[in-house]
C-alpha cells in the first residue's frame, strides 16, 4: 500500500513538472521526502502531492529537499587549482572565447567561482548556469552569500569582488555579467552543444546507474572535441572511453576526437 502511494506520487509529480523521480535512487529519495511529508503533517504521499500542487511555498520546499542545495565557493580548492592552471590555459588555446556550462548550479557559488577564475586569468568566456530549482536560481541571481560559503574563496578575490553588508557578502556586477541563469531539467530537457567546459559536480550521486549512463552520453555530445567535463569528488567515471571521454586529470575528462 505504502509503495503504491509513493509510485502514485512519482507519477503525479512527473505529470505536473516533468521531473521523473524514478530516475533518482529510490531509497535515498523516499527517505528524504518521507521525513518532509511527515514534518508537514501529511499521512500519505497522495495527500502531500495535493498540498504541493496548490501551495507554491510547499512546492519550492519539496524541490529544495529533492535537489539538496549545498554549495560553496571553490569547493575542493585543489580541483579548482587544476582547472585554473592546467585545463583553462589549454582550452584558451583552443577557443578565444571559452563557452562554459555549470549544470545543476544550485545557488550560484559554482558558476561565480568560474567567473572569478576567468577574471583572474584575464580570459574571455560565457557561463550558462542551470538548475531545476527556481528557488535556488532566484538566490543565485541575487548573489548574496554568508561568510561560510566563502571560507575557501581566496581573500584577495573576496576583497576585490564582494561588497560586505552587515551579515552577508554581495557579489559585484563584474562577476555576474558573464553568467546567464536558466531553469533546466538535466534528465528531461535537451542540451546545448559546442561547450569547451561543462561542470557538473555532486549531482550524479543522486541518480540511478541508467540515468547516469544516459547523462554522460549527453554531456559528451554537448562538448566540443577537446572540451572538458569536470565532475565531483565522489563521481569518478569508470571506462570513460565508452562516452568518447578520456581522463585528463583526476575528475577532469576530455572529449576525444
Automatic annotation (TrEMBL):
<keyword id="KW-0949">S-adenosyl-L-methionine</keyword>
<dbReference type="GO" id="GO:0008983">
    <property type="term" value="F:protein-glutamate O-methyltransferase activity"/>
</dbReference>
<dbReference type="InterPro" id="IPR022642">
    <property type="entry name" value="CheR_C"/>
</dbReference>
<dbReference type="InterPro" id="IPR022641">
    <property type="entry name" value="CheR_N"/>
</dbReference>
<protein>
    <recommendedName>
        <fullName>protein-glutamate O-methyltransferase</fullName>
        <ecNumber>2.1.1.80</ecNumber>
    </recommendedName>
</protein>
<dbReference type="Pfam" id="PF01739">
    <property type="entry name" value="CheR"/>
</dbReference>
<dbReference type="InterPro" id="IPR000780">
    <property type="entry name" value="CheR_MeTrfase"/>
</dbReference>
<dbReference type="GO" id="GO:0032259">
    <property type="term" value="P:methylation"/>
</dbReference>
<dbReference type="InterPro" id="IPR036804">
    <property type="entry name" value="CheR_N_sf"/>
</dbReference>
<keyword id="KW-0808">Transferase</keyword>
<feature type="domain" description="CheR-type methyltransferase">
    <location>
        <begin position="1"/>
        <end position="257"/>
    </location>
</feature>
<dbReference type="InterPro" id="IPR050903">
    <property type="entry name" value="Bact_Chemotaxis_MeTrfase"/>
</dbReference>
<keyword id="KW-0489">Methyltransferase</keyword>
<dbReference type="Pfam" id="PF03705">
    <property type="entry name" value="CheR_N"/>
</dbReference>
<dbReference type="InterPro" id="IPR029063">
    <property type="entry name" value="SAM-dependent_MTases_sf"/>
</dbReference>
Amino acid at each position: 500500500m505504502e509503495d503504491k502511494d509513493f509510485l502514485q506520487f512519482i507519477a503525479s509529480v512527473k505529470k505536473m513538472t516533468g521531473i521523473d523521480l524514478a530516475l533518482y535512487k529510490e531509497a535515498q529519495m523516499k527517505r528524504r521526502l518521507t521525513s518532509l511529508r511527515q514534518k508537514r503533517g501529511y499521512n500519505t504521499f497522495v495527500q502531500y502531492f495535493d498540498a504541493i500542487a496548490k501551495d507554491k511555498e510547499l512546492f519550492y520546499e519539496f524541490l529544495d529537499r529533492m535537489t539538496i542545495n549545498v554549495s560553496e565557493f571553490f569547493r575542493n580548492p585543489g580541483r579548482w587549482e587544476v582547472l585554473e592552471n592546467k585545463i583553462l590555459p589549454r582550452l584558451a588555446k583552443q577557443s578565444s572565447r571559452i563557452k562554459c556550462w555549470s549544470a545543476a548550479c544550485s545557488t550560484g557559488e559554482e558558476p561565480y567561482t568560474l567567473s572569478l577564475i576567468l577574471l583572474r586569468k584575464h580570459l574571455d568566456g560565457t557561463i550558462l548556469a542551470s538548475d531545476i530549482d527556481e528557488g535556488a536560481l532566484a538566490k543565485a541571481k541575487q548573489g548574496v552569500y554568508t561568510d561560510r560559503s566563502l571560507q575557501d574563496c581566496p581573500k584577495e578575490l573576496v576583497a576585490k569582488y564582494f561588497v560586505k553588508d552587515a551579515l552577508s557578502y554581495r557579489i559585484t556586477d563584474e562577476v555576474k555579467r558573464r553568467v546567464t541563469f536558466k531553469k533546466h531539467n538535466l534528465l528531461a530537457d535537451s542540451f546545448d552543444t559546442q561547450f569547451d567546459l561543462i561542470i557538473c559536480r555532486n549531482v550524479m550521486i543522486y541518480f540511478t546507474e541508467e540515468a547516469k549512463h544516459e547523462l554522460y552520453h549527453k554531456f559528451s555530445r554537448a562538448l566540443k572535441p577537446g572540451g572538458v567535463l569536470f565532475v565531483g569528488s565522489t563521481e569518478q567515471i569508470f571506462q570513460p572511453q565508452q562516452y568518447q571521454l578520456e581522463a585528463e586529470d583526476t575528475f577532469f575528462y576530455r572529449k576525444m576526437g
